[in-house]
Structures are given as C-alpha cells and as structure tokens.
Design the sequence.
C-alpha cells in the first residue's frame, strides 16, 4: 500500500468516526450544528474554544455531552469573584498515612481533567 493510499484510508476512517461522534452529540444538542462542528474542530486540532452566549443555549450541555460521547473525563469550574488559584489547581492537604503518621498529600483540583469547562470566566477577578 502506498503512502497516498494509506493517507486516503486514514482520512476516510477519521471522516466516519467524526460523523459518528457528531451524530451522537446531535441526539442531545439539536440545532447547533455549526457550533458542534467548531467545538469538535478545536478538540481534534488540540486547541481550546470560547463559547459565548446568553444563559440557556446549552453550552454546558454541549461540552458535557462531548465528554460523555468520547468517554473523556470532564470537570466544570464555576468562576466567582472569590475563586482562589488553589480552587482550580488543588492544594496540599494533611492526610493520615497507614502507619498513623500525618503527611501532606496533593489533592488535585478540577483543572486536572481531559475536558475542563471554565464557566462564567467574566466573573473572575
């Protein structure tokens, strides 16, 4: 098989999988085909995306459905004026070791996930 044929086969496989993912998301998110296409494009090229809109458009549902469809871990961070960096990144906590001693252990924050939704970033200070 030549390189061109191999690339053609890979492109066809990607197209089929992309269509299957888009159709699965379309079962939950109706009428936002361009937005779904844009979010999927951002995901596949390794980028990020900014979804803006009035409440109730399904932005959170879209991201949650995307994560479920692709079997990816999902976390949501609700930005508020009092949000601290440790609320996002995590912090060291005192835990009791099996031998009874106390020690610090890093508890990871919600940013340590495959898909992270930063909700209402305009409220952060």
Sequence:
């Amino acid at each position: 098989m030549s390189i061109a044929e191999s690339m053609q086969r890979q492109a066809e496989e990607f197209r089929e999988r992309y269509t299957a993912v888009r159709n699965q998301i379309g079962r939950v998110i109706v009428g936002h085909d361009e937005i779904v296409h844009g979010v999927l494009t951002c995901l596949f090229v390794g980028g990020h995306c900014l979804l803006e809109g009035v409440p109730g458009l399904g932005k959170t549902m879209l991201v949650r459905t995307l994560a479920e469809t692709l079997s990816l871990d999902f976390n949501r961070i609700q930005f508020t004026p009092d949000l601290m960096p440790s609320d996002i990144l995590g912090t060291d906590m005192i835990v009791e070791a099996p031998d009874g001693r106390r020690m610090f252990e890093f508890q990871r924050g919600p940013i340590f996930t495959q898909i992270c939704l930063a909700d209402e970033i305009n409220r952060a200070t």
Q: What stands out?
A: The mean pLDDT is 94.
